[in-house]
């Protein structure tokens, strides 16, 4: 039996480390000789930045299951094409061979699955017996083919919970102060997280709410008209908007910065809430406020959904089971089994079928005017945010001390990951 290696990639979630624990504990059930993890994803793997998790104790595993963020440092690093940087692929094969790695688990979103696919294709072409398996995660909920994505439920629970509290604040002050409040949700091209504000309707039935998902073009005139109507009727209006919101000409309302890397342009979004607040204030002459929870929505261990936590653990376990069944170049994703009670299972899909594809919000989850959620959308969201996880507190704060891993001594020659 060969050894196994695990790594994290892309934006983290509140439950990505639960998936890591699922991988580790399931590998133990199969008596895997050695279990390694790369620090800093595929980049750390190229740099031979590895830790040996074979002897991780139960107390450390339980701490791992509670930690948000990436306990093994999730990187944003893409492999170049084989034609441009064949040395990257040769290096990976060298690492896998030296450490006798039989299975590589890459825990990431749709972009990370492209990296995993590149690794799977190369190793297969060289006849190396490596099974490359993806481990699903993303708060954006945009993994193609999957019913939902591990990490999304907890982020949605965080946003809805805090949006509710902010709504009560605005409601109480609207007579003499702020009349419009807008919160920004992550989601460059998809509006799943923005839809989470709709869950507040289960608490405040007649909620003066506007939702602006990325799937719908922003129409300034229609938006301002609806804000005005809601303020006239209720005295205030609350709004949730996708960070990647674009106008009818396809232009993004707000881009914080652009970065160029690996021949691509990467946009960092941010500021759409502030822009919308300024627009309303200038047009309607009312006091406004905006909020951008940014990293908070993906890093809150205090708002973890018990359903999402279980899905994340099973995502890790399902990846190991897939490898043990001889599967290769696949990503186990979630299939809904039934609504009542809400149950699911994992089914493997080829990495090539999900790499760099996006699951967009269905039309029937968004109202006809493009600015609200439908009953179908609410029915989809509700089970994903159900349940809470207990939290241990020490000295008034959550006990979330990070785990400090001891890296193994490097044995191979150094490698220049940034070589041009």
TrEMBL record:
Homodimer. Its EC number is 2.7.1.90. It is found in: Cytoplasm. The gene is pfp. InterPro entries: ATP_PFK, PFKA, Phosphofructokinase_dom, PKF_sf, PPi-PFK. It catalyses: beta-D-fructose 6-phosphate + diphosphate = beta-D-fructose 1,6-bisphosphate + phosphate + H(+). GO terms for cellular component: cytoplasm. Signal peptide: none annotated. This is Pyrophosphate--fructose 6-phosphate 1-phosphotransferase. Non-allosteric. Keywords: Cytoplasm, Glycolysis, Kinase, Magnesium, Metal-binding, Transferase. Residues 7-322 form the Phosphofructokinase domain. Catalyzes the phosphorylation of D-fructose 6-phosphate, the first committing step of glycolysis. Uses inorganic phosphate (PPi) as phosphoryl donor instead of ATP like common ATP-dependent phosphofructokinases (ATP-PFKs), which renders the reaction reversible, and can thus function both in glycolysis and gluconeogenesis. Consistently, PPi-PFK can replace the enzymes of both the forward (ATP-PFK) and reverse (fructose-bisphosphatase (FBPase)) reactions. Belongs to the phosphofructokinase type A (PFKA) family. PPi-dependent PFK group II subfamily. Clade 'B2' sub-subfamily. The record marks 137 as: Important for catalytic activity. One of its GO terms (molecular function) is metal ion binding. The active site is at residue 140. Substrate binds at residues 138-140, 186-188, 243, 295-298. Pathway: Carbohydrate degradation; glycolysis; D-glyceraldehyde 3-phosphate and glycerone phosphate from D-glucose: step 3/4.
